[in-house]
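Quick one, T. Sequence first:
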Amino acid sequence: MKKNITKITTLLLIFLIAASSHVTASASGKEPQIAGTSAIIYIGDTGETLWQKDSTQRMQPASMTKLLTCLIAAENLDLDKVIEISYEATLPEPTKMYLQPGEKITVKDLMYATLLESANDGAEALAIATAGSVDAFAVMMNEKAEALGCTGSNFVNPSGLPDENHYSTAKDMAIIAYAAMQNKTVRDVAGTAEYTISATNAYEARSLFNYNLFLKGGEIRTGEYDISVEAYEGVVGGKTGVIDMDNCTMVTVLDYDGIEICSVVMGTDFENRYSDIKMLMDYGKTGISKYTAFEKGQEFGKAGLTGGAKNKVKVVAADNGYVNLPEGASASLVTVKCKYSDQITAPVQKGQKVGVAEIYIADELYKSVDLIADENVEKGWFLSDFGISNMQTVIIFSVIFVIAGSAIAILAARASNRRKRAKIRKARLEEEARRQLEREEDLKRRNWPY
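Structure tokens:
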């Protein structure tokens, strides 16, 4: 009987431990079990990696490349500029818009074709319009990637067509995708589910459909696959890519409560591409513990400046100071320190960067947010170079005027008093002389000897 009780107790303990482990695992979130070879969940706002799977492995990014292409084009071209398509731009295959040599189309429409239809000829046209040639544009791509902090990438074409020298990593593509989504033009284009290109001299109006189905939901039907995807709340953009049906890529940028999560998968198959990304986005949300250190537009006092009509300029945060608190960390560990530029000189334009707000967690720098001027400050008068504002100059000269006027008034009063006293003394002396003369004349009349 005693042995049976011991066995039952042991079984109960095992059950309780197992149940406890299950609860703990559920609470922390089940790690993604994806089909892809390489993947990452990356917080763009802070540069943190929430989860990764061989995220620095060099692989073909395929059409995810086009996010970098459009970012560079958006930074260098006017959206309304009309491009005349060259013969060279019509050569890439497949996924073409079938652009024609001599066709005239705007930069804006080329961007929509490139990101929604994944048009390789559209990407090539943007590259040539930006840099003059594909080779020159590839140089710009690698320079931009390096400037963003990418360490495992090399780009040789604007479309992502297979080439042994064209490669990237999941981490680098997350960095590029986040940067691209910070550009308003790219964000607007990549976040559009459907678009109609205006008629050109070669074609009537053309309708485009975004293969990032998380934006609106929808289906993709091929001879082998029939894939249905539901819209995913918060997805602001991204890009799909295909080398072949067994080698696909995808990146999405998800705005989750103000924090942007970039999810990338590489080396997955066509059927699992969307389910892989969905698992990454689901898991990414479980790793966010948002804390607001400050909000965009929040005032940070005033920064001193020289040469201005004012000697101080009102300062606000250029962006939200969101923090993803590490597990177990208290909000009391978060501190903010302001650092202003060494010398701020007028004129200052509203929106001009004048410093940074540094957010620390337990005295370790977490992220920096630009501080910008919240007002215009014109160049000041001659004393402004010494940090004296126009108003202070007016006050200073007003005080000087009052003091000078008072001094002049006092001196004038003193001079007037001296003249009055001299006149009085003169009158007294004259009166005394007159009296003396009268006494002498009186003595003469009396003929007194004394």
